[in-house]
Amino acid sequence: MGKALILDAVRTPRGRGKAGKGSLSAIHPQELLAQALNGLVQHTGIAAADVDDVVVGSVSQVGEQGANIARNAVLAAGWPQEVSGVSLNRFCGSGLQAVAMAAYGAASGFQQLIVAGGVESMSRVPMGSDGAGQDGNNARLRERVFQIPQGISADLIATREGFSRQQLDAFAADSHRKATIAVEQGRFTRALVPVVDPATGQVALARDELVRPDTSLAGLAKLALSFVEVGKLTVTPDGRTLDQIALAQFPDTPRIEHLHTAGNSSPLTDGAAAVLIGSEEFARAHGLRPRAIVKSIATIGSDPVLMLTAPAPVSRKALKQAGMQVGDIDLWEINEAFAAVVLETTRSLGVDPERVNVNGGAIALGHPLGATGAMLLGTVVDELERRDLATGLVTMCIGGGQGIAVIVERV
Hints:
Elements lengths: L3 E8 L3 E2 L12 H16 L8 E5 L11 H8 L7 E5 L5 H15 L4 E9 L17 H6 L5 H12 L3 H20 L10 E2 L6 E3 L11 H5 L6 H4 L10 H7 L20 E11 H6 L6 E10 L9 H12 L8 E4 L4 H11 L12 H4 L3 H19 L3 E8 L3 E9 L1
Parallel strand pairs: 3-4, 3-5, 10-11
Antiparallel strand pairs: 1-8, 1-9, 2-8, 5-8, 6-7, 9-12, 11-12
């Protein structure tokens, strides 16, 4: 088997995912992705006609994000009609799964040059717009497995791990601190593709919109808990609440301490990303210097109720595949869906916190669901180069109880 090479990675800035308020909320998601695709061409000088396929992650594939957004973005970008596109959904892991599928194609030799990426406009296509919920509204499935909302899962994890509200808020404040430094020092500049409003020709957003440099522990402490009332909702014919359903599997946990807020959870976000992946043969023939090699890819299923604990076991699986240990990884990107997820993963694996999310994460920067994994992949490659380090691991929790991890080695 050959190697899958990461040739480059770009992304749009992350915009606030609120209709009429976020700077990207006036931009159709196809156009967001199209601008990322064209940004990749401009960065690398590759010919779009050489791309074998465009693989795109998107979670809410309905309305403006339906109808195979990958193919429509290719057309919106003005690329040759011969370039194909496919859209996929592995919930929050979709963008990283797109990278994985592109890597499969390059390493197997079936494809030579693939664009992987993701897009989510949470301002225009709100989370849950497909009406399927977590389980497709399958009553029979709910008799077997009742999948609770992720926020309750995050609170259940925090409760079982003994994390305090102060610990979660401290992690969130640190995410904003690190992201603020990264923005001020221009650490994201290399990858950023400013978004232009197609209707006006004016730049709509040139830098990440959600980072709050003035975030403080005192300010975070004032925020209301997000999932207390959700947990009280009665959702079964026999009158059980979501909290009761969650606790039924864990008799050693008497109650859920609801601790997550809008401040220590990832915000609604708009954005798109594109990663160029090629075979060794293509890179050699076209004089392209790879930036990194994909060392291993792993996915795993986990408890569909606790749901968000898969990053640790899937990271172990990826490390075993690569013949590596936790200490061999220089930089970790653990998606900050909720503060408790990163704290639990870091503790479970025994990772040095100084190696985790060194430029902040989704709590500060935002989590445009289907795009985030591809964004994190580009971020870790950029930072490995900046720090002259060798290896990075990107991992994400996923709805329904799944995890994904990708290890890269800098060239």
